[in-house]
Amino acid sequence: MTDNSIKAVKAFFDDRPTEVIAADCLGRKLIYDGPKGTVAAYIVEAEAYLGEQDSTAHAYQGRRTSSVEPLYGQPGTVYIYSIHGRYLFDVVTQRKDVPQGILIRAGEPCAGIEIMEQNRSKHGVNLTNGPGKLMEAFGIHDMKMNQLFVNACPIRMDLDHRLIPSQVATGARIGVNQSGPSAQLPLRFYVAGNPYVSGMLKRNTLANNGWQK
DNA sequence: ATGGTGATGACCT
DNA sequence: GGTCATCACCATA
Fold first, then answer.
1. For strand C, which residues in window 84-123 of chain A come within 7 Å by CB?
2. What sections of chain A are H helices per DSSP?
3. Distance A119 CA to B1 C1' (A)
4. Is pTM beyond 0.90 here?
5. How far is CA A160 from CA A4, A103, A208, in A?
6. Structural contact between residues A162 and A191, judged by C-beta atoms closer than 8 angstroms
7. pLDDT digits (tens, 9 = 90+) for A107-125
8. Closest residue by Cα to the C1' atom of nucleotide B4?
9. Do A68 and A101 meet the contact criterion of CB atoms below 8 Å apart?
């Protein structure tokens, strides 16, 4: 976690539409330096949340309570929240006071798989094919990193080495409030055919897990 | 006291 | 393997 990588990550999460950033996260390596060792996964699914004008977003209509305050921080700020007794991991996009962000929903493990199996008591796709599962696999089960900064805390993104999806698929976001106007927007992005995408059916998986060769 | 951006296991095919 | 009802967790109010 050098100053350089902090700068790079901040630039990555700034100055582009949030949906572009979400799609560009696919294939990026998410790393966590935890107490049991280093674990990492290639991001295979991410969703964009467009803040004040997005009826599914925590900051809809400018809602600004202490719980959503991290969303108003610098690009690259970590926003962790709990739901259904799980912890979900977001990264803030856009400049300060523009409360947009992306939710990382799933990843393909690439390091520390034994640690993840231990943390999850599961194996295979069930390790990381959901937002809560991914965090549990990483061994993150509190909000200590909430409001910290990617690459300046034990969660890092490696922007130098990545996989390229053969095809990026889009769809409506999962589990969002259906009552508002934004519910059906195609702001969910995932690697087509990757078995670690949440809800991915076996019959729809592709060769090479949907990555370019 | 409340409710939500999930996950599980039972049951069916 | 796929579908669905049910679960209880914890942060916030």
1. 84-85
2. 3-12, 18-25, 113-120, 131-138
3. 32
4. yes
5. 12, 21, 21
6. no
7. 999 999 999 999 999 999 9
8. A83
9. no
Confidence at A132, pLDDT banded by 50, 70, 90: very high
Smallest CA-to-CA distance from A172 within A181, A162, A185 is with A185
Is pLDDT above 70 for A160?
Answer: yes
Chain C bases near protein CB atoms (7 A cut-off): 1-3, 7-13
- A82 CB inside 7 Å of strand C: yes
A183 CB contact with strand C at below 7 Å? no
User: Structure tokens of A153?
Assistant: 């805390």
DSSP annotation of A168 reads E
Instruction: Name the closest residue (CA) to the C1' of nucleotide C12.
Output: A67
Verify if strand C has an atom below 7 Å from the CB of A66. Answer: yes
Write out the two tokens for A206: 């592709």
**Long-range Cβ contacts of A185-188 (<8 Å, 24+ apart):** A185/A54, A187/A19, A187/A22, A187/A47, A187/A48, A187/A49, A187/A50, A188/A45, A188/A46, A188/A47, A188/A105
